[in-house]
Structures are given as structure tokens and as C-alpha cells.
């Protein structure tokens, strides 16, 4: 994170504050934040229609302007998706947009309309189960959203009406209402500050619920309204506010207030982000404030900022859809083949109309095409169970329940922050195990974002305090170690100006004792003392460093802030009325000490000054005043005004602040690289500082050859030549690596300016497109890449570039600040760090973790397990449905294609719902094919969606076909023309079908048992319990005469089958034969071609046996 830029105005007490009053106005913060698609990001100036707000709903004087009442939304927040009236139709519409659900609905309707071989219940009941479970889940989630909305909308608010305070509900607020907010209360909507209980018209605010920053920010009332202290005075205000229409940038606001007074022209004052109090923020250290509602309800910046979030789909879901299309084609092929063969079979008259089954007159009169189409639909109904509709609900339940295992993981709980991992979306659990590229921020992600002042250098003389306790000022200052003698004369003046600039040019606030998150701050040795807070940890470290060097910051009176172009501007009028402008910022060309500090990984800040003549000062004030009153293009006009005075600076000195590397950050990066992932660091810091961090975190090693693609190099050579030189270097090494020569490790460093040139189409390369492919080729051959001086949008562009490359790798972006939101949303998987730069990254991410070190377990353990589990779930569902339906297809060849079902209706209905559903669901939740503590090479076994590739899918399908043939033909040939019972009775077709179904249920369940590596009592209970449930259900279904059934074709069938000894022998034999090929395949593969995971498992077993 780079130190935020601010303008701070300071006047000694004996100087009149009115002289600098024109500077104490609105400035805009050019900061990137996430905006919904289609909207402009912050920093991109655009103009939208303005709105006029009448404070207190008072009409302006007749001569001032025309009164045009405008309608705005009320203050209700609506995050819910459904209402009581539209839940059923809207939810059903959304669910039937899924191909599988819509398909089964059509099958169900066909069963109702035409005469089909199976009951409509066989399709309707599973579909009803899936729809009901999904609707209950979505309805419950929406009910929770309704509860949250109600608690917010019914929150009490104090509103000023006719000079008195009236309490009302938050939802009843309207634009233009004046409200009173007390300390520790949350702002009910977006407000413009009118006055506060503080004498200077300021108030302190925390925006924890918006961006997670717990620091106190200062907001200001305009001078003309800050004197109103009572409800009566506020109610007497006659003014209007003109401002831009709502837009989601939290840090941007353009407007002006027109104040009307009797017999005077209206007074216009600019309004900016420092006057706007955002909904969700909390008032701190201020008794109360009066403010006017400017944006309400869904127009507030908080609502706009979190409304739009693109839906991400995992690679597994895409594979599921592809497999579904294949099985749909198989289904249609089966129906077509059976329809054609049926009419071929019925070609002869004796088969078309046998003596025992004559057609009706209606059937004879029907056209053959209509009859064929009806038969085709009947076969579609008969074979439709090959499409696993219950797979979708099982996958959804697995993802939803599985996400709790991440949140419950104690290894990912941080004691310091008191939080664990958070799952914002459960749709991407398995995608964590497929990540190939990791894009990480530096400050606050790889580093702690806990700044410590190291040294400062003034005119080449270095000052080093012994120790700085970040966030706490010690009451007794220890001695100072100075690497030079006491300065004097001219140099002493420079140092005094340097130290004063660092003491005053910031947004730091000095606070007394305060309790924050149950922790008392401002206590040292049992005595109260002051402590510093700021939105920037850099600023706190600098102010604390100055205190240790003898310059104590107490407070900044009548100050304001301005961020512009990565520097801090400080205008000082000394006692001799000499005006000096001091600028501090991170510059490229600095002295040797700064370069040395940067190489060591320290964060550097340079301070320079320039004297202003009274005429220059007055001219600057005039231009700034004009620019600040503009509603359109205000930022550009402010930039032009500052460009006039931001020149001819004299360098005073520089500071060095250290941001320590996070615990186990280097170990995490090393583990990810060993697992085959490529790690890129994307940062806004300068190259030397970022490179030092990369070496410390083991992203770059001492043996790594660094390739530079920077602005400095492209100024010496053309971009075309530099790219082709680097390309030749890496390609030459790749050709040598094929000759058994030791491979050279490369690392690439690129800056933002060069990246822009690379991504911009070049006329020189019009024949070959642009430089992107060359750049990507270089990156592919580098073990690590560092992108420095990156703007937030460029971070997203890098991620998008890699996503769109020909390999289409799975990408992950991780960061902790608002400037990382763009790349977090762009990547396949976004992870936010709950750090010190706020929670906006965590709120917009798919997952949030306390520290960077937790990424290792998130990817290499949870991601790996989830991918293997869900891949097995998907393949197993298709496999067991092939085993289920293919015997039905074979049976048609032995029943004259009469559409006679092989299985009973109850078995058709409950196969996927009850008999085989729970074992695979539990497997997909708790299966561990290896221990958590394992070598990282296991990641490579599942890379590139390895377990859901077409060869693996073909193997599972062929295995299902083989088992189905064993079930059917085994039962057919073993018991053909054979008596079974003691009384000489032979098995009928329902007994035959029950025998096949029994072998089927036991085989597919035992197949899952063979694939299970991690056995617990729950596994035993579910697997053996499912088999026991099938047996008990079959006994009850066939052993009792059920009064609600018109006919009971399964009566006594199951008992009769079990009473035969050959049936028991046949069931056991067929199950063993069916499972044998898979067992042999597993043994051969593990012996001859073991995977890295199997090798590591064997190694662990051997190691444990040795001990």
C-alpha cells in the first residue's frame, strides 16, 4: 500500500485563519474501488445528470430558482430476492431454467399425456424432491435476508421537524430530511454534514462496515452551516444542494450547497467526499451531528457498491454440463434405436397383431408417423433415468455443507484477529484445487502492513530512533541515536522544516484512552497517554518516529485533506508571513540513501519544498476556488490548478519505513510453487522495494536470473527489441533444457507503464497482432513474475490476460485492500485477506482468510480434497445411472420392444432418492484419500481438471456398461430354464428384474466402499445402512398388501427370490465379477503407474512402519 496523499493546512495560533480559508474546501480522492459492470471506476471522470435537494423540504425564494419537486426512493433497503407472493412462481421459473430440471418436467408431462410404460410418479417424485429441497434452501436464505432488511429498516432515527427532534423509523426517511445522529450511532443513509457538537464543525467517523477500516476519519461541515448548534437553528436553514446522481464510488462525491439569506445573493460552497457521511458508517468521538439526507435506500453508495457481483462457474460445473449433453445424446439414440427396431420387429403381421393382443380401431386409424413418435416418447420416458436429476441437488448440498468445513478449520483461525476463514460463496470449493496461477498483492498480503519507522535522512545526515512501538506512544522517550553531530545554521533550518512537514502533513489523529474491540488503547504503565490513529499505517509510523526525534504532534486544527498524484501537499505560513509549500511523495530519482533503503525492502518517502510569493499564493487560491465550485470535470480543473504550483521543488530529505514479511509467507509461496502453481506479485510499490520483498518471500531465489521489462529499459531500447531479446533468452534456455543441461530459473519484472505499452496494439506488429503473445510466452517460461507500479485496473488486466490465454488456466487473486477488488472479481477464485487496509477485499471475495499463510491449507488441502470428492461424485452418478438403465435397454430385445419396464415403479422412483444417495453424499463430504500433512506434489495429480477429462469419463461409462451387461446376462444365462423353488415354480419377469436390481444396488454401493480410503463410523453406518434399508423396504413392499395400490405386482416376489439358494449364490457371484475389473485396474495402476499421491501415501506408510 502506498501512503495516501493529503493536503494539510497549518497556521500558528497568532496568524489569522481566514487567510487560508479558500484552501479549506473540497478535494477529491482518486482511488480505485470496485464498481458494478457497466459503471465507471473511480478516477475516470464522467458526468451524469445532477439532482437538487431542498434541505428540510423548504422551497427556495421565488427570485432564486424554479422549485421543481423531485421524487426519490424511500430509505428501505431490499436485499431479499423474493416476496411472499412471488416466491413460488419466481423460484420455479429459476429452477426450470436448468436443463436437467426442464427435461424432467417435459418427461413428467409426457407421462401424463400419453400411455407410457412407467407411472408419472417415477419422474414426478424425484423432480418434486429436487425442486422442493432447492426451494427450501433458497427460501431459508431469503428469509434470513428479509430479517436483516427488517432490522435495518425499522431502526429508530431522530429527525428534525419544525424545530424539534422526532423519532421515526429509518425506512420513513426521505431525501431532504434533516436528521440528528448521536455518538456511536450508525448513519441511516448518505448524509451531508451541516454541523456538529464540536466547535470546529468536524466529526469523526469509522467506516468498518463499509471497507473494514477501524481508523477514525475526519469529516467537515461547510463554514456557513457549522455554527448551527440547536434544532431551531438548523430548522431555520434555507438552502439547496446540487449534486451528482448516485454512483457507487465510496470515495468520490461532487456537489455544492446554495445558502439563501434575506436580501442577499445565495452563497455557493463546494461539497466533496469529506462532507459526505456514508450509510453504514458510525459516528465516533463526537457528541452529535446534524445532517441532511442526500441519497436514500437503494441509492446509497453502500447499496450500489454491493449490488452487482458476477456469477462465477467452476470447471467441474462446465464438465457436468458437457457430460449431461453426451448422456442426453445417448438417451435419444437409445430411444431412436428401439423405435426403429420395434417397427422392424413388427414388420410381420403375426408379430404386429398377435392373436392375444389385437389393436383397437383407433390405433389402426392413427398414422404410422404419429404412432412412431408416440413410441419414441415412450422409450424416452423408459430410459430417462440415465439423466441423473438428483445429481444437481446432491452437488448443491455437498457444496453448501462442505463450505462449513473450511469455516470450522481451527488451523485457519487467527487468535490475534479473533476470526477464522469465511466462505462467501460455496460454488467454487472444488476450484480451489485447480488453481494454476496465484496473483497476490504485496503490502498487507505478503507483508504485515504494520509499519515501523527505521530512519530519516536530511541533507545526507541519517537519524535512527532506537525503537518505535507502532500504534502506542510511550510516556518516557528513550535516547536518540543520531549518525552525525547536532546540526546548525542553514542545515538546521532545513531539518526543522523537514520535521515540521512530517509532523503536520498527514491525516493522523491523536487520541486519549479508548476501548476498541474490548482492548484498551492509550494506557502505558497504568497511566493514560495519547496514541495515534490513521487510515494509513505509514503515517502513524512517521508521526511516531518524529515524536521520538523530538517533534511531538498534538493535533491539527482546522485542517483538511487532499489526495492527488501520489504525494502530500503542505502549505505553511511561518511567523514571518513567508508562505512555503512542502511536498512529500515517492519519486523515482532520489539520492543514494533512498535507493539503498529501497533495495533493502524499506518503504521510502521523499520530502521537498518550494517558497511561494503572495501573488503566487493568491493566484493559486483563486484557481482552486473556481475549480472546487465546478460540478463538471472538477478533478481535471483541480489538477490543472495544482500543476501551476507543483514545480521547482528543493529536496529536503527522505524517510524509511519497514513493513515486515508476514509469518510463514515464504513457506507458503515455496509450497505453492512446488505444487506446480505460478505465483505473481502485483503491487503499486517501486521496483526496488517490491523486488526485495520477493527475495525475502522466496519468490525469487539468489540463483534466479532476473529479466527486466521496465520503462527504464524501454527508453534505452525499443519495446519491440526488448521483448524479442527476452523471448530469445528464455526460448534458448528451453531448447537447452531438452539436452539434459541444468535448467536456468528465470524471474520477470515488469512495471505498469511498460505493461500498458504491451497491452496496447502496436502498428509495428499489425501483421502478427500485438505484443501480447510474446509477453505471454516469456511469462510461461518464468518461474515467477513481479509487476510493480501497477494501477488497480492494471491488476485486473493482467489477470484477464492470463485467463484468456490459450491454455485457459484457473486463476486465483488474493489481496487485502480496496485496490485489489478488481483483480479479485476478475479471477476465477478471489480471496480476501482480513487485514489492516479494510475489509472491502474480503467482502467482495469468494473466500476470506485472516493471513496469507492460510492460503497453503486452503489450496493444497481443502481445495485438493474438494476437487477429488466432487469429481468422484459426478463420475459416480453417471456410472450408477448407466448401470441402472442399460439393463432396461437390453431387456427390450427380449420383450419384443414392447416398452415393458424391467424394474418395479417403486425401485425406479427410489433408486436415486433413497437407495444410493446418502453414501455418495457422505463420501463427498468426509473422504480423505491421504493425510492433511502431505507433500505438495499431490496437486499435480488433479491439475487441469484431470479427474473429469474425457478419458476418465469414458472409463467410468464403459465400467458402467460392463457391469450392466454382467447384471443382465449373468442373471439371464445362469437361471435360464431353471427351477428355483422347492415346489418347482420358475421365476417370472418381476423376479428377474428384482434380482438384477438387487445385484445393481449392492454393486454400486460396494464400488463406493472400495473407493473409500477414510473410514469412520459414519461411513459404516451410511453404507451398510443403505443396503439394509433396501432389503427391509423390499421385504415390506412385497410382504404386505397395501390398500392404496390398485394392483400389487411385487407381492411376495422378493421373499420368493431370497428363498432360493441359487439366487443367493448368483447375487454373490455377479457382484464379485462386476467389481473384479475395477479392483484389478486399481492394483495394476498403483503397482506399475502410481501417481504422486499414491507414492507419497506409500512413503508415509513406510515411514510410520519404520518408527
UniProtKB/TrEMBL annotation:
Residues 69-123 form the P-type ATPase N-terminal domain. Belongs to the cation transport ATPase (P-type) (TC 3.A.3) family. Type IV subfamily. Its main location: membrane. Pfam families: E1-E2_ATPase (PF00122), PhoLip_ATPase_C (PF16212), PhoLip_ATPase_N (PF16209). The active site is at 441 (4-aspartylphosphate intermediate). Its cofactor is Mg(2+). Keywords: ATP-binding, Cell membrane, Endoplasmic reticulum, Endosome, Lipid transport, Magnesium, Membrane, Metal-binding, Nucleotide-binding, Phosphoprotein, Translocase, Transmembrane, Transmembrane helix, Transport. ATP binds at residues 441-443, 539, 603, 683-685, 789, 795, 819-820. The gene is LOC110501300. It is found in: Cell membrane; Early endosome; Endoplasmic reticulum membrane; Membrane. It comes from the Eukaryota. It comes from Oncorhynchus mykiss (Rainbow trout). Its EC number is 7.6.2.1. Gene3D superfamilies: Calcium-transporting ATPase, cytoplasmic domain N (3.40.1110.10), Calcium-transporting ATPase, cytoplasmic transduction domain A (2.70.150.10), HAD superfamily/HAD-like (3.40.50.1000). It is a multi-pass membrane protein. One of its GO terms (molecular function) is magnesium ion binding. Residues 842-1091 form the P-type ATPase C-terminal domain. This is Phospholipid-transporting ATPase. The chain crosses the membrane at residues 96-114, 322-345, 376-395, 906-926, 947-975, 987-1009, 1021-1045, 1051-1076. One of its GO terms (biological process) is phospholipid translocation. One of its GO terms (cellular component) is endoplasmic reticulum membrane. Residues 157-302 form the P-type ATPase A domain. PANTHER family: PHOSPHOLIPID-TRANSPORTING ATPASE IH, PROBABLE PHOSPHOLIPID-TRANSPORTING ATPASE.
Amino acid at each position: 500500500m502506498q501512503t495516501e496523499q493529503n493536503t494539510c493546512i497549518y497556521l500558528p495560533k497568532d496568524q489569522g485563519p481566514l487567510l487560508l480559508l479558500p484552501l479549506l474546501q473540497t478535494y477529491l480522492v482518486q482511488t480505485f474501488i470496485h464498481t458494478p459492470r457497466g459503471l465507471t471506476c473511480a478516477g475516470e471522470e464522467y458526468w451524469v445528470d445532477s439532482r437538487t435537494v431542498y434541505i428540510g423540504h423548504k422551497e427556495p425564494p421565488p427570485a432564486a430558482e424554479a422549485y421543481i419537486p423531485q421524487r426519490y426512493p424511500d430509505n428501505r433497503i431490499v436485499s431479499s430476492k423474493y416476496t411472499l407472493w412471488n416466491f413460488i412462481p419466481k423460484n420455479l421459473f429459476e429452477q426450470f431454467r436448468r436443463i436437467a430440471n426442464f427435461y424432467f418436467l417435459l418427461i413428467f408431462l409426457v407421462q401424463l399425456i400419453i400411455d407410457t410404460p412407467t407411472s408419472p410418479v417415477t419422474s414426478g417424485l424425484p423432480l418434486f424432491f429436487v425442486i422442493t429441497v432447492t426451494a427450501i434452501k433458497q427460501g431459508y436464505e431469503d428469509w434470513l435476508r428479509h430479517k436483516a432488511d427488517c432490522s435495518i429498516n425499522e431502526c429508530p432515527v431522530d429527525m428534525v421537524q419544525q424545530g424539534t427532534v422526532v423519532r421515526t423509523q429509518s425506512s420513513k426517511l426521505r431525501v431532504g430530511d434533516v436528521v440528528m445522529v448521536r455518538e456511536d450511532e450508525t448513519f441511516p443513509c448518505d448524509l451531508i454534514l451541516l454541523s456538529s457538537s464540536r466547535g470546529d464543525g468536524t466529526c469523526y467517523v469509522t467506516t468498518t462496515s463499509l471497507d473494514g477500516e477501524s481508523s477514525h476519519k475526519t469529516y467537515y461541515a461547510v463554514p456557513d452551516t457549522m455554527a448551527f448548534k440547536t434544532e431551531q437553528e438548523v430548522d431555520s436553514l434555507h438552502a439547496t444542494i446540487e449534486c451528482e446522481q448516485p454512483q457507487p464510488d465510496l470515495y468520490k462525491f461532487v456537489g455544492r450547497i446554495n445558502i439563501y439569506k434575506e436580501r442577499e445573493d445565495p452563497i455557493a460552497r463546494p461539497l466533496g467526499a469529506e462532507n459526505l457521511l456514508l450509510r453504514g458508517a458510525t459516528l465516533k468521538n463526537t457528541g452529535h451531528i446534524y445532517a441532511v439526507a442526500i441519497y436514500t435506500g437503494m441509492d446509497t453508495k453502500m447499496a450500489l457498491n454491493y449490488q452487482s457481483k458476477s456469477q462465477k462457474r467452476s470447471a467441474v460445473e462446465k464438465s457436468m454440463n458437457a457430460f449431461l449433453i453426451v448422456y442426453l445424446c445417448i438417451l435419444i439414440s437409445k430411444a431412436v434405436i428401439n423405435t426403429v427396431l420395434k417397427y422392424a420387429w413388427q414388420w410381420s403381421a403375426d408379430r404386429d397383431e398377435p392373436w392375444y393382443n389385437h389393436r383397437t380401431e383407433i390405433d389402426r386409424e392413427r398414422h404410422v408417423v404419429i404412432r412412431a413418435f408416440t413410441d419414441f416418447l415412450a422409450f424416452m420416458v423408459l430410459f430417462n433415468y440415465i439423466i441423473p436429476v438428483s445429481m444437481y441437488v446432491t452437488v448443491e448440498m455437498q457444496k453448501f455443507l462442505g463450505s462449513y468445513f473450511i469455516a470450522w478449520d481451527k488451523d485457519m483461525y487467527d487468535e490475534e484477529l479473533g476470526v477464522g476463514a469465511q466462505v462467501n460463496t460455496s460454488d467454487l470449493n472444488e476450484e480451489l484445487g485447480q488453481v494454476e496461477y496465484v496473483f497476490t498483492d504485496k503490502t498487507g498480503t505478503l507483508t504485515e502492513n504494520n509499519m515501523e519507522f527505521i530512519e530519516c535522512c536530511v541533507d545526507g545526515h541519517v537519524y535512527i530512533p532506537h525503537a518505535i512501538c507502532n500504534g502506542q506512544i510511550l510516556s518516557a522517550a528513550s535516547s536518540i541515536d543520531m549518525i552525525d553531530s547536532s546540526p546548525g545554521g542553514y542545515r538546521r533550518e532545513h531539518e526543522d522544516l523537514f520535521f515540521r512537514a512530517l509532523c503536520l502533513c498527514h491525516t493522523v489523529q491523536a487520541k486519549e484512552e479508548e476501548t476498541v474491540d474490548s482492548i484498551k488503547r492509550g494506557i502505558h504503565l497504568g497511566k493514560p497517554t495519547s496514541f495515534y490513529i490513521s487510515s494509513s499505517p505509514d503515517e502513524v509510523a512517521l508521526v511516531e518516529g518524529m515524536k521520538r526525534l523530538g517533534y511531538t504532534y498534538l493535533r491539527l486544527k482546522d485542517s483538511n485533506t487532499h489526495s492527488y498524484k501520489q504525494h502530500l501537499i503542505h502549505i505553511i505560513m511561518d511567523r514571518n508571513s513567508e508562505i512555503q509549500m512542502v511536498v512529500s511523495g515517492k519519486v523515482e530519482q532520489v539520492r543514494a540513501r533512498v535507493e539503498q533503503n529501497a533495495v533493502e525492502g524499506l518503504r521510502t518517502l521523499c520530502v521537498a519544498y518550494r517558497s511561494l510569493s503572495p501573488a503566487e499564493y493568491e493566484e493559486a487560491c483563486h484557481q482552486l476556488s473556481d475549480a472546487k465550485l465546478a460540478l463538471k470535470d472538477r478533478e481535471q480543473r483541480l489538477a490543472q490548478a495544482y500543476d501551476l504550483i507543483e514545480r521547482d521543488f528543493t529536496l529536503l530529505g527522505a524517510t524509511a519505513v519497514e513493513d515486515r514479511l508476514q509469518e510463514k509467507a515464504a513457506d507458503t509461496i515455496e509450497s505453492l510453487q512446488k505444487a506446480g502453481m505460478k505465483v505473481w506479485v502485483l503491487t503499486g510499490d517501486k521496483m526496488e522495494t517490491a523486488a526485495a520483498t520477493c527475495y525475502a518471500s522466496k519468490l525469487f531465489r539468489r540463483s534466479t536470473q532476473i529479466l527486466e521489462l521496465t520503462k527504464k529499459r524501454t527508453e534505452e531500447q525499443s519495446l519491440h527489441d526488448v521483448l524479442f531479446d527476452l523471448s530469445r533468452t528464455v526460448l534458448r534456455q528451453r531448447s537447452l533444457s531438452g539436452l539434459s543441461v541444468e535448467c536456468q530459473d528465470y524471474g520477470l519484472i515488469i512495471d505498469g507503464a511498460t505493461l500498458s505499452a504491451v497491452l496496447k496494439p502496436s502498428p509495428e506488429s499489425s501483421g502478427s497482432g500485438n505484443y501480447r503473445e510474446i509477453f505471454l510466452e516469456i511469462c510461461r517460461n518464468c518461474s515467477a513474475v513481479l509487476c510493480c507500479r501497477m494501477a488497480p485496473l492494471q491488476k485486473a488486466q493482467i489477470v484477464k490476460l492470463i485467463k484468456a490465454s490459450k491454455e485457459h488456466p484457473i486463476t486465483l487473486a488474493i489481496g487485502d485492500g480496496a485496490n485489489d477488488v478488481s483483480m479479485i472479481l476478475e479471477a476465477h477464485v478471489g480471496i480476501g485477506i482480513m487485514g489492516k487496509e479494510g475489509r472491502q477485499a474480503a467482502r467482495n471475495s469468494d473466500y476470506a482468510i485472516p493471513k496469507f499463510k492460510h492460503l497453503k491449507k486452503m489450496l493444497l488441502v481443502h481445495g485438493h480434497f474438494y476437487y477429488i470428492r466432487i469429481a468422484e461424485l459426478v463420475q459416480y452418478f453417471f456410472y450408477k445411472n448407466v448401470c441402472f438403465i442399460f439393463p432396461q435397454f437390453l431387456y427390450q430385445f427380449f420383450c419384443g420392444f414392447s416398452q415393458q419396464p424391467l424394474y418395479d415403479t417403486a425401485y425406479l422412483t427410489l433408486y436415486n432418492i433413497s437407495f444410493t444417495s446418502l453414501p455418495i453424499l457422505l463420501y463427498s463430504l468426509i473422504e480423505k484419500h491421504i493425510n492433511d500433512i502431505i507433500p505438495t506434489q499431490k496437486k499435480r495429480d488433479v491439475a487441469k481438471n484431470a479427474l473429469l477429462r474425457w478419458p476418465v469419463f469414458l472409463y467410468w461409462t464403459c465400467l458402467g456398461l460392463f457391469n450392466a451387461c454382467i447384471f443382465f446376462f449373468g442373471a439371464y444365462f445362469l437361471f435360464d430354464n431353471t427351477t428355483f423353488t422347492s415346489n418347482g415354480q420358475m421365476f417370472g419377469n418381476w423376479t428377474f428384474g428384482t434380482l438384477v436390481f438387487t445385484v445393481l444396488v449392492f454393486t454400486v454401493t460396494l464400488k463406493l466402499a472400495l473407493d473409500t480410503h477414510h473410514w469412520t463410523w459414519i461411513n459404516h453406518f451410511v453404507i451398510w445402512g443403505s443396503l439394509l434399508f433396501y432389503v427391509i423396504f423390499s421385504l415390506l413392499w412385497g410382504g404386505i398388501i397395501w390398500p392404496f395400490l390398485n394392483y400389487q405386482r411385487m407381492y411376495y416376489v422378493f421373499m420368493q427370490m431370497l428363498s432360493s439358494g441359487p439366487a443367493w449364490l448368483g447375487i454373490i457371484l455377479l457382484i464379485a465379477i462386476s467389481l473384479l475389473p475395477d479392483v484389478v485396474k486399481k492394483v495394476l495402476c498403483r503397482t506399475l503407474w502410481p501417481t504422486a499421491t499414491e507414492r507419497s501415501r506409500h512413503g508415509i506408510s513406510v515411514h510410520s512402519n519404520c518408527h
